[in-house]
Queue: 4 jobs
Job 1
Amino acid sequence: MDALFNPYYVDIVVFLIIYILLGLGLNLITGYAGQVSLGHGAFFGIGAYASGILSVKAGLNPWLAILLAIVITFVISAVLGLPSLRVREDFLAITTLGLGLIIQSYFKNSELTGGAYGLDSIPGLSFFGIEMKNVGYLLFVLIMLLVGIYALRKMTRSRIGRAWMVIREDETVAASMGINTTYYKVLVFAIGGAYAGAAGALFAHKVSFLSADSFGFTVSATVLSMVVIGGLGSIRGTLFGVTLLYLLPELFRLFDLQMFDMKYLDMYKMMFYGLLMVLVMRYRPKGIFGQTGIKMKPRGKGGGGRA
């Protein structure tokens, strides 16, 4: 039992859950609405820095700081989602990549974020005066994950979710059906960003120190790989993809495999991700658990139905 609750293993699961939340937000944007984003790490950073700054420099209670960080990321993500109104596919990917690099540069150079020195002394969470460490924090992030999954299931099975999927398949057809594509595209960026903001806030209060390097393109590319391999437009695909790609490097480190030099673990990891991406794109273009189309519920005897 002591080995099961070893702080090292508990931390691995905590960070895994944080990455799953991050992946759920990206899958909502890319998998369900078809808006390719290469700057999701920026939303992750906005949530982390917002919560850290509010709790360190503004002196707010960490619980309130997390809530406000989610709201702030929601609003900023909606604003940053505006470029998606005029660009699509490859152009959208390049645009979001550029936005992500701009935001990371701001993190590195702004006095508000601590610049190159980063932001430290971020307080942890406490519940009725008891500091939440290890298992306590694990239970909290697990509850956040369950709430996030429940909310995502409700959204994607509602009229909003069907509208996103129609936009994903063909935006012109969606507009001809009377779907307000402008509203739904901005909304999906805002909600997906809020998921990333929640993940970032949880990350900030876990590690207590933030550096701009933690929210760069590598994070965005890694999470996108996890989502694509697991399956676009699938919650269980995100759970599978993130868990698989996050835990494999940890298994290498845990068993200290002799065939791998642990100094080059990051290089091996990215090589493996790339190879797996090539294989999945060749044989399962939608990912292992990805959706192949829109599932419409029949309405009445005549069938049919609108998004």
Note: The radius of gyration is 20 Å.
Job 2
Amino acid sequence: MTVAEGGKPKRDTYRHGDLRNALIKAGLELAREGGPGAVVLRAATRHAGVVPNAAYRHFADRAALLHAVSQAAMAEAARTMEAEQAALPPAADPVAAARARFRAVGTGYLRFAQEQPGLFRTAFHVPGDMAHAAAETAAGAGGRTPFELLGAALDDLVETGLLPEDRRPGAEFLAWSAVHGLAVLLIDGPLRGLHPTQAQDAGRQVIDMIERGI
């Protein structure tokens, strides 16, 4: 135990390996408010209630913490996309159901970007490739990452005949690029001033375009 400002005792360790998770949770809160730039070791340890040096037992440097927080933010995106799919009304027609699940992937992605812009920016701050696109640390409650949720939705389109099998390879990159581009325009670009109804319409139209194009 050490003494913090004001005379309050401050723990410098967490029992049962909880400190790593506590720091990631603190990093998520920092990212929620200030994006990836706000995720720094000293601020995370302050939020977690430990001395700064305690972080180095779990993270070699800021980049390591930011990577872990980025993965956790990606998992938050996956949970939002899962919730969008779970909210769909029951559909007896498997074709209609597959189409709705595919569209929900896009609308959930856009909803996450607009409701949690700090986490959205952090989710895509690192890494610089697809090495962690299927990592468990980026998965939602159902065990799939955002990229895997998109892939599964596209596979459903193939299985129900909505997407020709020969057009399936690489379709996730086309769909992802279009929706991600709109998300960035809405939160950081010239479309950030759109009325929510206009933003929703834009999202629907982009998803319509993707459906026609893949």
Note: Confidence is low (pLDDT under 50) at residues 1-16.
Job 3
Amino acid sequence: MSGAPLAAGSVDRDWRTPLELTVLGAIWGCSFLFMRVAVPAFGPYALVEVRLLLGALVLLPFLWQARVQFPARRWLWLAPIGVINSAIPFVLFAWAAQRAPAAIGAICNAMTVLFAALIAFLFFGEKIGVRRAIALLVGFAGVVVLATAKVAGLSIGAAVVAGALAALLYGLGVNLVKRHMTGLPPAASAGATLGCAAILLLPMALTHWPAAPIPMLSWACAIALGVVCTGLAFLMFYRLIARIGPARASTVTYLVPMFGALFAWLFLGEPVTGAMIIAGVLILGSVAVSQR
């Protein structure tokens, strides 16, 4: 008799986990579509400021609830982590979205897992192993394929470099969070780092705020980017980590490029080229091998 509730709960969790992973992958895939639509009107700095501010506001109740766990000394790490893990990568992806299809940023984003392993090996003494080293080389080959490709006759190399640099900073941020924010409530920590990033980016956003009126569609995309793709998505991600662990939760990385390319094709008519498919297979394949 006692086994029946456990079995039901297990079935419920098994049903919810792939659904939530899929929804989260779709949400983060949408973020590249929203950036592509909104950034021409906002510019990278103003758009990212809106994203950071709204994401921080969504998570503010969690930070307020855990405020006693955030004494002044902790903010010495929270502020730089916010810049490294949010402000600069968001700006780089937004800048890339001005110059390349939405799928390009989504594909580059998948490199985060590989960069996190590389940084842990180079600077924090973690072992990398032969399999993961090979996966890194294959993933970088995918970036080279993507950077040398052309879409509609235009070079996208600069956008790929920006996206890869953003993924590199995400990888560094993952290691910093692991070493300096362990034990803190994740949602509250995310709210703190996003808030710090918003404050530090504010001068650039104000000096680069667009002079022309911003269309309602661009505002709608910016708001969705901040509220849904940042604030609510972080909550979903940390809920998954608490239930299934970080390794399984990180498999959402495989879904983001597919949804990013699909939505860009469906709603913006952006092409999916052979080079993009090859690069995506190389990068996602290397991530899959490194995570086994």
Note: Residues 3-42 form the longest helix (40 residues).
Job 4
Amino acid sequence: MSGWNAHDIPDQSGRTVVVTGANSGIGYVTARELARRGARVVLACRSESRGTEAVDRVAVEVPGAEAEFAPLDLGDLDSVREFAAAYGRRYERLDLLVDNAGVMALPQGRTADGFETQFGVNHLGHFALTGLLLPALLATPGARVVSVSSFVHALANIDINDLNSERSYGRWTAYGRSKTANLLFVHELARRLAAVGSDVVAAAAHPGYAATNLMTVAPRMRGRKGSERFMEIGSRFVAQSAEAGALPTLYAATAPGVRPDSFTGPSILGLRGSPAKSRRARWTLNDRAGQRLWEESERLTGVTYDALKV
């Protein structure tokens, strides 16, 4: 995969794709480049104004692109169910689901369903979405699910007894746990897909250090000028662009031979560079942890993956 870039994306004609959080940053670039290669892309975004603006931008940058907006708030399970139901009414197949949207290092808060915000949006929302769209994925030969995690997952393992950070809360610890949850989800999803003989590929990716809105909003929301300044300096001198940061996701989503439960990130210290196999904390490959998180996620969301039960 050395030197792999957006020009290497295979033809996506005839494929239907959902990208969450596609109105800006890595999600937008992912959606745009898949549309450029011929995919029909659904930009699933919380904000209607930003989502429709993103669709308009795609239309300008990629004349003839098939792109549409659909409302999705991952912090509200009713919205997740409404999105999945609307998708099912319109489409019978789903070639690619990119679980990209996320929030980072926020002050402590709760989703509409009462979950800690980062765990609720970054993990539980995507867990529910993927489960509800599973029939369409299973009905599509060669389908893939790509979860966007982070190198920051290495900061913290999940605490299965305190998934919603009720005992204590640290904004970066909570973020790391949510990104660990993304990887454990992919690990367990890949195992369950293999167990039923499905050819759906579940893989993970991370952008390294990319200069996107996500990298600057978190410190600003916290109100810490020093943190904001640090992020600004890092984004200016260390971070790569959103275009480069999207490459690991695009590789995991489209490159031939991507293996289930793989983790793709930038090649240079996991921070920048072309897509490469990425290091991951050992706890993200723990079968028992993956199973327990899965069981708790089904209980908390009410979404069960019945087709993957053996």
Note: Strands lie at 16-20, 40-45, 66-71, 96-99, 144-148, 201-205, 263-268, 272-277.
